[in-house]
């Protein structure tokens, strides 16, 4: 009896058993991949940590970036730096490029697929009845082609969906672009407001020191008492403590601006004061016109439209998948055999193939239901987006109008409080007013100065918020288009800045304005030694040199609102409130 087949079978079984045992013993113990207990931190292995040689590619230094630390930067330069360095803008741009590649990928279904292969094989055949063996070696290439001719619109619907996704990605980039502009504008004016708050506090410190000196002089001449001097001294220390708060706020605002720029924060980051208060020409259109403008041009609204259309095409593609596909298939091969008489052999075939998946476990049915639900969800998300945009435009529009009036009222309040303080200061030195009257007037003046700083900060933020709400750009950001048209840039830079429909013509720079409490009051006459309005200017220059390492150079006062903003308010006061109603609800559908 021939035992060879049985011996080979036993050998095969033994090898399989050995392999199974080896596989089981080599299983990874996953418990060692986490911490031993919930109360312990996980210690990462060395290979999980980024090496020191890992470098994330960043933007190349530009002319605008080279100005950092050289001189104080104005808002257009800061915007230019942020758009070149901010990772969010670059990430959104690369995402749009990925969507463009996905759209190109969807076009590949219109072309045939061609594949080439080659094979080399060894055949071994044994016939136990004839007691003979046949060995042969075969090799040869083969060519296969498959061309989809018709699938009831599924191919075109898929390509259209990819195209709309590309549009959505581009609109998302535009929205990111505008959001970065808003962040930089807000951070710039926040830092300017922090500098202005420090300047106002420095002016208050001069007044407090003058009050303390007057109280001390009265005590030394026997006309005052020690309690008044101590109260005046306490007021000086309170203002000095507020200055430390202002210094901390400046550095916090500087850090926020650096984060918006996409650079490291440092004392070298200094800003130029705004040449004029921010304005917004589109406000003449009224709130209804701004709402309509936002629904037409805001990038995230247009992105939502594109995503809805993409979902519609996805539903059409899912419905078309129910029907058969017609394709052209062709195949050819050449085979050569060694040790055989029938070689070589050529083979070719071409056929029209109709393929129809009749049943796949209701997969296509649920795919249609999924696409339909996704479309309905996207439609509701688009409607909600419109409602939010209308709410934002309405809120920021009236915040802007209110901020203009607040600035005007705050400036008048500073003038009145300054005159009251000067008069009471004279009265205190002549014995008419008490120290309490003088301290109260001083606190009221300090409050009015800070109120003006806050009002101008709200005005700047309301302009940035309103511009972002309607999908526009503030005037400083519009200068980027001028640089884009005048400078020679690389192809990648042009693509990064080529955002259609976002730019408007910028107005010429107005003349710089002087803060109100730094102007010389020619009518005020005070011989008592109390601080004058013009003394604030000297203190403002001196206060910037507090520390060599404090980074406080370039501290500026808040600016005044322009006459154009006041004219807008006067023109709008005569309008009826009904003119600002929202458009009919049908426009939101």
Automatic annotation (TrEMBL):
<feature type="coiled-coil region">
    <location>
        <begin position="191"/>
        <end position="218"/>
    </location>
</feature>
<dbReference type="Pfam" id="PF02321">
    <property type="entry name" value="OEP"/>
</dbReference>
<protein>
    <submittedName>
        <fullName>TolC family protein</fullName>
    </submittedName>
</protein>
<dbReference type="GO" id="GO:0009279">
    <property type="term" value="C:cell outer membrane"/>
</dbReference>
<dbReference type="InterPro" id="IPR051906">
    <property type="entry name" value="TolC-like"/>
</dbReference>
<keyword id="KW-1134">Transmembrane beta strand</keyword>
<dbReference type="InterPro" id="IPR003423">
    <property type="entry name" value="OMP_efflux"/>
</dbReference>
<dbReference type="GO" id="GO:1990281">
    <property type="term" value="C:efflux pump complex"/>
</dbReference>
<dbReference type="GO" id="GO:0015562">
    <property type="term" value="F:efflux transmembrane transporter activity"/>
</dbReference>
<feature type="region of interest" description="Disordered">
    <location>
        <begin position="499"/>
        <end position="589"/>
    </location>
</feature>
<keyword id="KW-0812">Transmembrane</keyword>
<keyword id="KW-0175">Coiled coil</keyword>
<feature type="compositionally biased region" description="Basic and acidic residues">
    <location>
        <begin position="561"/>
        <end position="575"/>
    </location>
</feature>
<dbReference type="GO" id="GO:0015288">
    <property type="term" value="F:porin activity"/>
</dbReference>
<comment type="similarity">
    <text>Belongs to the outer membrane factor (OMF) (TC 1.B.17) family.</text>
</comment>
<keyword id="KW-0998">Cell outer membrane</keyword>
<keyword id="KW-0472">Membrane</keyword>
<keyword id="KW-0813">Transport</keyword>
